[in-house]
Amino acid sequence: MCGIVGIVGREPVAERLVDALRRLEYRGYDSAGVATIDSGVLARRRAEGKLFNLEKKLAEDPLPGTIGIAHTRWATHGVPNETNAHPHFVDGVAVVHNGIIENFSELKEELIGEGVTFETQTDTEVVGQLIARSLRNGMGRREAMQAMLKQVTGAYALAVIFADDPSTIMAARSGPPLAIGHGRGEMYLGSDAIALAPFTNEITYLVDGDWAILGRDGAFIFDHDGNRVERPRQISQSAAYMVDKGNHRHFMEKEIYEQPEVISHALAQYVDLGDHTVDTSICGAIDFASLRSLAISACGTAYLSGLIGKYWFERYARLPVEIDVASEFRYREIPLAKDQAALFISQSGETADTLASLRYCQEVGLKIGAVVNVKESTIARESDAIFPILAGPEIGVASTKAFTCQLTVLASLAIAAGKLRGTIAPDEERQLVKSLTEMPRLMSSVLNAVESQIEALARELSRYQDVLYLGRGTSYPLALEGALKLKEISYIHAEGYAAGELKHGPIALIDENMPVIVIAPFDRFFEKTISNMQEVAARGGKIIFITDEKGAAASKLPTMATITLPHVAEIVAPMVYSLPIQLLAYHTAVFMGTDVDQPRNLAKSVTVE
Ligand code: F6R
Question: CB 3.0-4.6 Å disulfide test: which of 2, 63, 348, 599 passes with 14?
Fold first, then answer.
């Protein structure tokens, strides 16, 4: 979602601000802008669409000034045009905002009633108008900022500069993250540490309710009541990551190919690669042995990894799992008790609905575990036990390596939970862990083996308008993930179903215009899935069969294509079968010419409801 950067510097800032915005592009946006102060005058350049439009404007008409704020906007209130792009100016006040001001309509009406006119359709403009009104009424800048913060409700990360103060940025956080970067004689502000990595690795995260005043030599942080507070300064690891595409055409492709390596790193943290055991201390503050049940909640792809995790916790640890998408979980008023624990899965660690579900469980007094990629994120900070997935920064909006790393961590935790609950014998533990340790090698060989076949198949798939994915057992959530991946980056309509549900409705859709992708490793569900495949074939459906050598040999049905993988243990099938699914969506989207890394309308970090 929206990205914010700011610099209080000693040298011109406009170009550096746009460079920093580039590192936030992965969050998704549809317009961008930058504002600076030069000789007591605020000036801005804004542009609809991608950053190169903004850069073109800056090249034609440069912005001088050693202080500035900049923004990538993911439209919520008001279309993504130049007028609605941030920064917004009101009487010498410039504002950028990530989030939603929930009471903006009432505030806008009140201000309009006082004769104020609004230039934009955004909720953000009320922030500038409220500050400007307080300044007109004689308040100082700091008081005006505080007064505004007391009036607005909702989710926000804000950065504000004032034409008559060229050495200060004010910032505030309630919900979406905001990080202060410490430089030498310069200070920085950013939506995350990745944006600030070229400038500094010394980061202070604002806590919810904090606001701050940044000058060239440091920052003062205040809590909601205006009391000075100290927040820890941390050394961020983000600078260590090269946020570039390497030899790949897209971040998504790079991230698909990184999976064997990042999964090896993750595994090394969770299992003993030598003696094929799990150390139950990985469970941290979650006492799996005494739990009556586990509640899992997450959004999108992270939710689908949780759904596969449910199969594992129930099978290997005999632990009942309650799972729901976070946007439903948070409002479902689920009766929860202290002998349950809750697990939240989030790549970004900032997803608004997941965080709200976490806080709901916290209020009930449940122990909270977080399976996250960003260890400094809000979800990680508010949890009792953090289970990092160690995928490294995921820049492509469509989640790939985070998904398989989440699965790797969930599989390890399910085995550890089984060990603690006495539901897994030592032999089974060793067998399961051995299978996990073989996974990175298997994934590398699959990536090499299937790419050219999938590229050719993608060309064919791109001619269709609807695609169905089917699977059973853990291949069912994978069918949902396959459909999600295809629709989000190629814009082809796709649906995932449990293969057994076919007869209860979706079979009506089957004809020669509906390719059906059947995910069926040769496992205990294989025969049943083949029966469903038979039903598709009998109705002229075109089948893309993703299976293994044994499955390919066992089925005699005609297919549009059969993608044959090595036969793998059941516990690693979801990770290994993710690869053809991701590659098929990727190549279809490339073939169709969509913006693979930043698909339309999508945001990487969804910090609003
Ligand atoms: C899909 C995708 C999204 C995210 C979802 C949750 O490819 O990436 O569905 O999985 O928005 O995001 P996190 O994991 O950051 O909470």
Answer: 63
